Amino acid sequence: MIRSSSFAPILRLFAAKRQDEKPPDHAEAKEKTGAILLGMPSRLVLLLAALLLLIGLGIRLYDLTDPPLDFHATRQLRDAVLARGIYYRYLPDPDPETYEVATSLANGIADYEPPIVEHIVAFTYLLAGGEHLWIARLYSILFWAIGGVALFALARRMTTPAGALFALGYYLLLPFAVYASRSFQPEPFMVMWLILTLYAAYRWSETRTWKWAILTGVFAAIAALVKIVAAFLLAGLMIAMVLKLLGLRKGLKNPQVWAMALIMVLPSVIYYLIGLGEGSSSYFSNWILALLPMLRDPSFYARWLILLDDHFGVTFVLAGIAGVLLSKPTNRAMLLGLWIGYAVYGLSLPHQTVTHNYYHLQLVPIVALSVAPVFALIIPAIGQQGKVWRVLFAALMLLAVAYPLSVAWLELKNTDYRQEPAYWEQVGEALPVNSPIIALTSYYGHTLRYYGMRHIFLWPITAEQRLAAQRGTPEQAFMDQFESRTADMDYFLVTNFGELDRQPSLATMLYDHYPIFEEGDGYIIFDLEESLD
Q1: Where are the alpha helices (DSSP H) in 39-185?
Q2: In sequence order, what are the beta bridge partners of 516?
Q3: pLDDT tens readout for residues 305-352
Q4: Of 23, 79, 241, 449, which residue is most buried, by most CB within 10 angstroms?
Q5: What are the backbone angles phi and psi of residue 361, rounded to the nearest 5°?
Q6: CA distance 99 to 34
Q7: Cα–Cα dist 530/490, whole Å
């Protein structure tokens, strides 16, 4: 059984200082003061941090084997299809038919970023002796926990033990962070490397040694390679810190700065610009340039603020901004650079900013670090109060842990998707073999690809049609669209009947002009080769 003290050695690794790297004069006094204000020794602070880590791990491990349909199933199942294709590619003596389907489905997935996490999961499948999708969830949880250790160590250096504990609690117990950090997608892995970059960059600001310069560059390079959107925050961070510590002229002449910059950008340039080529330029034109007119709509900013309130708590966001203003100069530069990078990132990807909450996952450690200085200032004031008020404050802190924990637990407890795989397997078995099929279905068809193991083409949902209009794509007449999309199709599958109700022209066309090939619980297959006319 894991004990609370099991995490203490890991925490000490981040807290340890090399003898030849003397910290600033205020660091030791600050740590002692923080411990005194908490009324506990440094070892107990580590044990409390370890306890928070165990609580954070425990809530994430709850209902571990539930299918990954609880949080952005489209993205999770996309990565699951990729991981299975990689697994069968390396599996000795696979079933030829399953191998062919699994690898062809994986090859049909568009490249957005290098499938690093998918390879890690697939190779673990090989070691585990089978494809167990919960392994991916375990990796995401592990990545988030490692990030938590680094976050606590960084917040402890930037503020006090009290501020560090609060930052760690927010990072681990925020319900949105609980759901997102269990998901099979690259974001938890990217956030881990982002936090490691922050820690290394802060140590570089303290020591200016080549060791921390190289580590900063390497960690940042991996973060950006895993998910290129991390580059926005990394650029803001490094530009702000270099300007604060060295100034523009000295920064441009500093070999460590150039080394960090080169290491940071080289892997991403090789993969995204050279490797993907047209894919990157197409993404830039379709998802950034074409959607920038959204910035002229005031509702965009209202929706962004509502999303922040729903997932982060706007009180914490505003308190974090106040924490930036209260921070010491170097800390302020670091945090301000991160916030500016996040703002530029949100403005650059307006559609995803207001529709994809997991695109904001990297904001969790930023808010946690930004709020830490505010909480660190509260503790001295509480310490000056009477015993009764200190006890009440301790009870309030326990409630602050219990409330988000209960919210996350109830959400996980009340959602059960174990019946879904069997349903999609049934749909997959009902579809004719070796026949081209177009479908109006949920999750962009990835449930059918993963559980049903079937190739399908997609009929666009209304949200996709609205997005095309936002890009300025000319609206196509329904009959022209239907004829062009179904020209080479034999069957039309419908599982998303709510979406069919929102497209009455399509419903009329299918029911009035084509016979039903097969109908089951929750699905209808229309035969496009026959016509009722």
Answers
A1: 42-61, 73-90, 96-107, 116-128, 134-158, 161-173, 175-180
A2: 526
A3: 999 999 999 999 999 999 999 999 999 999 999 999 999 999 999 999
A4: 449
A5: -60, -35
A6: 58
A7: 9
Element (H, E) at 437: strand 437-440
Q: What is the pLDDT of residues 47-82, one digit of tens each?
A: 999 999 999 999 999 999 999 999 999 999 999 999
- CA 408 to CA 319: how far, in whole Å? 23
Residue 95: exposed, middle, or buried by beta-carbon count in 10 A (0-12, 13-18, 19+)? exposed
- What are the CA-CA distances from residue 347 to residues 20, 282, 298, 321, 340 (Å)? 43, 19, 13, 18, 11
Rounded to the nearest angstrom, the gap between the alpha carbon of residue 68 and the centroid of all alpha carbons in its chain is 14
Burial of 344 (0-12, 13-18, 19+ CB in 10 A): middle
Residue 323: in which H helix or E strand, if any? helix 314-326
Q: Enter the tokens of residue 54.
A: 């165990």
Cα distances from 384 to residues 164, 229, 255, 413, in angstroms, run 21, 45, 48, 41
Tell me which residue has tokens 């200085």: 373
Is residue 216 within 8 A of residue 259, CB to CB? The reply is: no
Token pair of 299 as six digits = 């509702």
Alpha-carbon distance of 276 to 443, in angstroms, equals 25
Residue 5 pLDDT > 60:
no
Residue whose structure tokens are 């910290």: 23
Read off the tokens for 324: 């930036």
* CB distance 6 to 145 below 8 Å: no
Give me 428's structure tokens: 């997959």
